[in-house]
Amino acid sequence: MSAAPVLIFILGCFAWALYFRLRNAFLRVYSVFFLILVVYATNKAYYGISPEMSEGTFSPLSLARWGALIVFAVFAWRLKAPEKFQSDVALGFIVLLLLADMFFSAFYADSFSYSFLRTLSFILLAYAVVKGMTIYFFSSVNCLHFFQLKYYAAWIMLAPALVMLVSGLGYGITIIMNQYAGFFGNQNMFGTFSALITPYVLFHWRVVAQKRWEKWMDGGLLLIILAGLWFSNSRNGISSCVIAVSTYFFVVNLQNRIKILAAAVVMVTALAISPSLKSDLITFVRKGTDKSFQVTDFASQLNEEQRFKMWKGVWPLFWKQKLTGYGFASSHLLVFPFTKDEEAGRALHNSYLEIFGDLGLPGLILLLLLICRVAGQSVTLTQRRGEYLERNINAVFISVFVAGLANAFFESWMFSVGNLTSLMFWVPVAGVVARWTWRTDAAKRTPQFAENTTYKWQLHQGTTA
Known about the structure:
The structure is a single chain. This protein is mainly alpha-helical. 69% of the residues lie in helices and 2% in strands. Helix 2 runs antiparallel to helix 4. It starts with a helix and ends with a helix.
């Protein structure tokens, strides 16, 4: 039975949020592109979207995605930088070099058209993010509106699906090999979405919710996220969520950072020395399967993992082309001979290794320089003793950035414009850059919303600074 009403419900809820709650034109344009990627991430066939409608460069849904991306870039071009906005020249230079490397690599890729179109789409996304989102996030008010969109997305995409699961109806949700995936096409996408959406819910719980029932609602949503991750058994999703939550509280709790680090060390140590806990963790890593009696520890587990087999197989091939790579978006095609799982073999499941295979050492070095630059800005933000609101805004962007970096080590979404996770990662990176350029003298002319009444009115009216 087709579950098309579920997709209609999702689209309807987002339409309500955009029409009644989020009235900024630029945010609405971003939201349309975000929503199209959400549709791509769902179980499309189950909801009545055939491959002819979504697969291929010129399918209707793909053309809609391209159109939304172009409009997103155009609106970014139209945004004017605030008077006190200071561009990061060093970071911009690194980004330009990386994009240029992608562009020229298309000329020696096996499929020029495929590599060129992938490069063009990422250049458009990079422009929209670098030019548009950094300017948009310079205003604290705009950050609040963006966070509200993600908060609504968490309710829309996670809460109804879990209700369907625990009620036993199961209508509209996806179960793959006894792993819960919610409205998404697979459990890994569900886990990653849940992890990267959690900081926005934490922000709403800590900053926006003032009344007791609002606190309880947000606490319930956090429990829904944790329960969904538990049922999904998504290893990468759960670990990314733990990293996101830990990073968030590390940023906002200036006086308790040593305690947070100490608790993390104690937890890791307990897992390492406790035979029972260690055994349980190995069982979780293996997803409860008894693949081989030789698996007794983490080292032997690695030899059994499909990801490790693929990485080990393609590494010599990548090293042969270490100076140039095989062309942007081309190296993952070498994965197939090293796995019997065609579904898993569609990607390398490691964004860093994939960019090395695509662009060689120059591309990998440029990516690491970009990450180091943004990481340095994140450290600067954590050292600022700003207002409570500003610290929590910074915490959201930094926690998504850190969790995304960890998640990308096991997934290949970082440079895939059509992947929802890529958008959910790069936009908060722009948030880190924007808040780093934020200056106190410029912010004084922006309402700070320390008082709940003013903040709530501005947030729900959809006004911007």
